[in-house]
């Protein structure tokens, strides 16, 4: 399990192949060659999937040229490397991204046309790698692309899940989870690195061994070993500036077929041992509501953390020969608490494998690690039963105890009382003794950052209040961002062209130049062009909706969109309840001039999250009633698009008019969907939560629809623990909505289906759905007024596109690189 020194030194001036030409003729020749000799198909019988593989391989060759040059440059110039550890990388499809970033789009299109192949057909056939649950994983993917674009040498480390996030289908309105088999036909983007394989241990015992000098060295003897094998995917930056590496780990048994056991007749045991190892990387986020599920989840986290750290230390020693320079040449960013066990594992590697003393190992560890917190939700700040960690990772738990003793002693010296010390402790003694991964990441890192200004301030006051008092310089803010390449240039080519025609193409290299659009926001001619691009995108989405759901929607109606993970704090329930209010009023007052809307939902609920799945069913039940009621006259349509993923988001976001960012204030760390929508010319309706606060500052309060309670008001109401019954009873509109849903108007087959969901609003209303309802309803009516005057609407959405360039992941990564990693 050690980090061996290399057998041969790196040769910086080794020969390299001639870079490939990028013209259409050269690409045509190479695509044909790949089809013939790599895929083994004659063009006469080749299917679209064959052309996809051949095209991917031809494009990949050109990326490899830059990939190798990027790696050589890092070695040659001893540049500091950034290692981004994340349990999720929601990378989505890579072909369009790679072709666009390499500047090959025109050449590839022309080459494929000569074979009568449409590039859009190929892109649609590429599997969507769903290696993430939502915003956390998509942020990691955006960050990797930005690191390449601004030339930060970097590796992303994660898990090569055989099955990513489940494929979502609907059965009578209920979510059904099916395996997402993205690797079924192979992955032409990846390279298996058998030489980069590491043993990962679990269980066993720790033996103290006395050394010749009288010191005692701890030796961990795991009872179980698995092998972590690396698979590398190149991540290309804009204009091919740099190509970095996404290294994903696959778990395999040490002996793949366990011949000894198999030949001795223990056939089932041998197969079970193999399956146990492979299970580690089988599924993204196994259900952890059982002891077995918890153990598998912890195995995953330690597996990829240990493999990554062994790889990092091996590479550093290979180049520099000693570990003293580790913080100067290595920056490791923990993306949330999932890789937090890395703190203890790095200490084990430095002390037990490399022979460093505690103080030196702790100095190097703290100087190397930084931690990003993504949530204030208690259930998302991971904790593990101490007994489980002691059984699975006995040496690491010893180290955790030692870290905890050191930190608590420091707290006592600083005069903290027992209550404060209990809050700081890495072990929660009140809840059945659990290891707090957030606290472990905090104390073991030199930097702890939030992901929006509001979130960072709330961190200081809530989850890390006592740690912040103890280490007041450690918490800092790095507001999230999104890559403008994927989320504007690639997903919205019509708007990209329009912007370029108006202000020039410089914004593609410097997204801050979008501010030049501000001067054209009230230009009627430009507004009409802007609206025409939006309409074309809406027509394309309307086609998707008709094709997938059989529902016809009017592209001229307002497309009101909420696409994100289904969770009670994100308040899809508030949205669908307001839709019911609209439905009631349209029928009750047909004489009024209602603005037509299409309410579009998409997102997945965790398989064990019953209320979230019930909300999906409610959305589909309401849609079934509303969409078929002739009294509505087509003024309101509701659709739920199943199997939300990156590719679907790329279709929905450019078509959105209204962006729903309505989480309970104080509960959304940042959000990135809000940034993508605004960049593509949508108006935000939302609470003062997460990055909405900063979006309002950037676009101006007149160009966003803010409503509802603030984070402080939410906390105050929760502290009072008062029933919201009086709030509900004072609101005629809300009363009617609750009565209709609870009474079974939308569930005639089971009139009690939503009774408990509605009763929860009377009992506690933890997520402030009832308390924010009237404010939300009023804000929606104001949005209707904006929509009724298209000049007003167009001015607002153009201001949004012009003013949100600051929310580029390039800006975020520059701040990380300059202020945390010291890598620029």
UniProtKB/TrEMBL annotation:
The keyword Cytoplasm applies. Gene3D superfamilies: Glycogen Phosphorylase B. It is found in: Cytoplasm. GO terms for molecular function: glycogen phosphorylase activity; pyridoxal phosphate binding. InterPro entries: Glycg_phsphrylas, Glyco_trans_35, Pyridoxal_P_attach_site. It is an enzyme of class 2 (transferase). Its EC number is 2.4.1.1. GO terms for biological process: glycogen catabolic process. GO terms for cellular component: cytoplasm. PROSITE patterns: PHOSPHORYLASE. Keywords: Allosteric enzyme, Carbohydrate metabolism, Cytoplasm, Glycosyltransferase, Pyridoxal phosphate, Transferase. The modification N6-(pyridoxal phosphate)lysine is found at residue 676. It holds the Pfam family Phosphorylase. The keyword Glycosyltransferase applies. It catalyses: [(1->4)-alpha-D-glucosyl](n) + phosphate = [(1->4)-alpha-D-glucosyl](n-1) + alpha-D-glucose 1-phosphate. Residues 1-23 are annotated as: Disordered. Its cofactor is pyridoxal 5'-phosphate. Belongs to the glycogen phosphorylase family. Allosteric enzyme that catalyzes the rate-limiting step in glycogen catabolism, the phosphorolytic cleavage of glycogen to produce glucose-1-phosphate, and plays a central role in maintaining cellular and organismal glucose homeostasis. Phosphorylase is an important allosteric enzyme in carbohydrate metabolism. Enzymes from different sources differ in their regulatory mechanisms and in their natural substrates. However, all known phosphorylases share catalytic and structural properties. This is Alpha-1,4 glucan phosphorylase. The gene is glgP.
């Amino acid at each position: 399990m050690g980090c061996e020194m290399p057998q041969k030194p790196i040769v910086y001036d080794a020969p390299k192949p001639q870079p490939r030409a990028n013209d259409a003729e050269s690409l045509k020749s190479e695509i044909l060659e790949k089809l013939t000799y790599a895929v083994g198909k004659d063009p006469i019988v080749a299917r679209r999937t064959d052309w996809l593989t051949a095209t991917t391989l031809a494009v990949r060759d050109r990326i490899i040229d830059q990939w190798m040059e990027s790696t050589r440059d890092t070695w040659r110039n001893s540049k500091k490397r950034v290692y981004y550890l994340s349990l999720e990388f929601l990378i989505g499809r890579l072909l369009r991204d790679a072709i666009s970033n390499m500047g090959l789009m025109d050449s590839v299109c022309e080459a494929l046309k000569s074979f009568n192949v449409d590039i859009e057909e190929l892109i649609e056939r590429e599997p969507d790698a769903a290696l993430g649950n939502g915003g956390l994983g998509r942020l990691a993917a955006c960050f990797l692309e930005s690191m390449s674009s601004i030339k930060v040498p970097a590796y992303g480390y994660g898990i090569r899940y055989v099955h990513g996030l489940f494929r979502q289908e609907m059965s009578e309105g209920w979510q059904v989870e099916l395996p997402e088999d993205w690797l079924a036909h192979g992955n032409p983007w990846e390279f298996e690195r058998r030489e980069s394989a590491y043993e990962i241990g679990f269980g066993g015992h720790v033996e103290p061994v006395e050394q010749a000098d009288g010191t005692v060295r701890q030796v961990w003897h795991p009872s179980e070993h698995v092998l972590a094998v690396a698979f590398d995917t190149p991540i290309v930056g804009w204009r091919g500036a740099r190509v970095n590496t996404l290294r994903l780990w696959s778990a395999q048994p040490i002996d793949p077929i366990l011949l000894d056991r198999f030949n001795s007749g223990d056939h089932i045991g041998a197969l079970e041992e193999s399956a146990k190892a492979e299970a580690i990387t089988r599924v993204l986020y196994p259900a952890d509501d059982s002891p077995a599920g918890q153990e598998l989840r912890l195995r995953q986290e330690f597996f990829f953390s240990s493999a990554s750290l062994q790889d990092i230390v091996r590479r550093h020693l290979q180049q520099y020969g000693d570990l003293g320079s580790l913080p100067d040449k290595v920056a490791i960013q923990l993306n949330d608490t999932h890789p937090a066990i890395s703190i203890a594992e790095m200490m084990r590697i430095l002390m037990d494998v490399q022979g460093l003393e505690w103080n030196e190992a702790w100095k190097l560890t703290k100087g190397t690690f930084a931690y990003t917190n993504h949530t204030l939700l208690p259930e998302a700040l991971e904790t593990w039963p101490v007994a489980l960690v002691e059984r699975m990772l006995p040496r690491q738990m010893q180290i955790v105890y030692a870290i905890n003793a050191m930190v608590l002693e420091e707290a006592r010296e600083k005069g903290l009382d027992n209550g404060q010390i209990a809050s700081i402790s890495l072990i929660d003694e009140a809840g059945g003794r659990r290891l707090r991964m957030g606290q472990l990441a905090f104390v073991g890192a030199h930097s702890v950052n939030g992901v929006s200004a509001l979130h960072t301030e709330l961190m200081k006051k809530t989850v890390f209040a006592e740690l912040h008092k103890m280490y007041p310089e450690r918490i800092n803010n790095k507001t999230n961002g999104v890559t403008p390449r994927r989320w504007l240039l690639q997903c919205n080519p019509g708007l990209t062209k329009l912007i370029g025609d108006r202000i020039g193409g410089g914004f593609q290299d410097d997204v801050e130049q979008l501010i030049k659009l501000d001067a054209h926001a009230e230009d009627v001619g430009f507004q009409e062009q802007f609206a025409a691009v939006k309409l074309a995108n809406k027509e394309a989405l309307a086609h998707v909706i008709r094709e997938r759901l059989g529902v016809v929607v009017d592209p001229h109606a307002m497309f009101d969109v909420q696409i994100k993970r289904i969770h009670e704090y994100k308040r899809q329930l508030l949205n669908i309840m307001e839709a019911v209010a609209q439905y009631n009023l349209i029928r009750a007052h047909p004489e009024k001039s209602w603005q037509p809307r299409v309410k579009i939902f998409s997102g997945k609920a965790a398989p064990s999250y019953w209320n979230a799945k019930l909300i999906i069913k409610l959305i589909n039940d309401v849609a079934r009633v509303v969409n078929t009621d002739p009294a509505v006259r087509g003024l309101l349509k509701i659709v739920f698009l199943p199997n939300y993923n990156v590719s679907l988001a790329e279709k929905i976001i450019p078509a959105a008019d209204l962006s729903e960012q309505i989480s309970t204030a104080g509960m959304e760390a940042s959000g990135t969907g809000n940034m993508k929508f605004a960049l593509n010319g949508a108006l935000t309706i939302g609470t003062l939560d997460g990055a909405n606060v900063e979006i309002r500052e950037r676009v101006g309060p007149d160009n966003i629809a803010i409503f509802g309670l603030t984070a402080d008001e939410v906390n105050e109401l929760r502290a009072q623990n008062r029933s919201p019954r009086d709030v509900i009873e004072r609101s005629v509109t809300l009363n009617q909505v609750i009565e209709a849903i609870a009474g079974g108007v939308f569930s005639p087959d089971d009139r009690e289906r939503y009774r408990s969901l509605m009763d929860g609003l009377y009992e506690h209303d933890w997520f402030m759905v009832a308390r924010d309802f009237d404010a939300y309803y009023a804000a929606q009516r104001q949005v209707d007024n904006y929509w009724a005057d298209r000049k007003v609407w167009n001015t607002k959405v153009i201001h949004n596109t012009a003013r949100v360039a600051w929310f580029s992941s390039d800006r975020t990564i520059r701040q990380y690189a300059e202020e945390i990693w010291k890598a620029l």
